[in-house]
Amino acid sequence: PAMDYAGLAEAAAAKIGQYRQDPGGWRGCRSTSEVVVSWRPSAEFSGNVYRAAGTVAARPEDVWECIKPVAGGLRTKWDQNVKDFEVVEAVSDAVSVCRTTTPSAFMRIISPREFVDVVLMKQYEDGTMLSAATNVEHPQCPPQPNFVRGLNYPCGCFCIPLPGEPDKTQLLSFFQTDLGGYLPQTVVDSFFPASIAGFYSNLTKAVKALKA
C-alpha cells in the first residue's frame, strides 16, 4: 500500500505544534549567546527530543530562505550536518519526500548517515513559517551501502516573527533523531546539543552573508 505521505507530514506538524505549546519537563543542557537547548525523553523512540530556542537578527523571510527544505536550497552550503539534500518526490506544493545525507561527525565516531523524510512547509496567519518532517520509506530510496540509515521522528523549525521587531526572528526547533548503528549513548547525548548549537551559529552567519 502507498504511504499516506501528506497525512504523515500533517501529523508530524501537529506533533511539534504540541511540543511548542507544552513547556513542561524540558531540562536545559546547552546555552550559547545564540540558542538555549533543552531536552526530555522522547515519547516516539528510546532517545531524547531536543528543543532549541534562539533569536536570529534577521527578517523571518531571510531566515526561512536559509533553512527551507527545497532542492538547490542554501541548507547544504551552510549546515555542516547536511552533505546532500534531494527531493525524491514532490507530493504537493507543501509536501515532499526528501533524502538527506550527513557527513561523518564527532571525530568520525559517527559515520555518514542517510535520512528519508516526508517534509511539510506551512505558513500560519501570524506569519510564522514551519518546516516539519518525520521518517518514511520510499521505493526510490532503498538503504545505501555506504550509509547508516537514521530515523527522524517528528521534528522541525518554527520561524516566528517578533511583533514590533521586523529585523528579528525567533527560531524554535525540535530535533529527535535515532542515528541508528551502534553508538554509545554517551556519544549520542554529547553530539546533539553541540550539533544544535552549531546549527544556530552557522545559521546566524549564513543569514548575515545572505543580507550582505
UniProtKB/TrEMBL annotation:
Superkingdom of the source species: Eukaryota
Transport is among the record's keywords: yes
Gene Ontology MF terms in the entry: cholesterol binding; cholesterol transfer activity
SMART domains the record matches: START
Domain called START: residue spans: 25-212
Keywords on record: Lipid transport, Lipid-binding, Transport
InterPro entries for the chain: StARD5/6 (IPR043556), START-like_dom_sf (IPR023393), START_lipid-bd_dom (IPR002913)
Biological processes, Gene Ontology terms: cholesterol import
Reported function: May be involved in the intracellular transport of sterols or other lipids. May bind cholesterol or other sterols.
PANTHER family listed in its UniProt record: PROTEIN CBG07384, STAR-RELATED LIPID TRANSFER PROTEIN 5
UniProt protein name: STAR5 protein
Species of provenance: Asarcornis scutulata
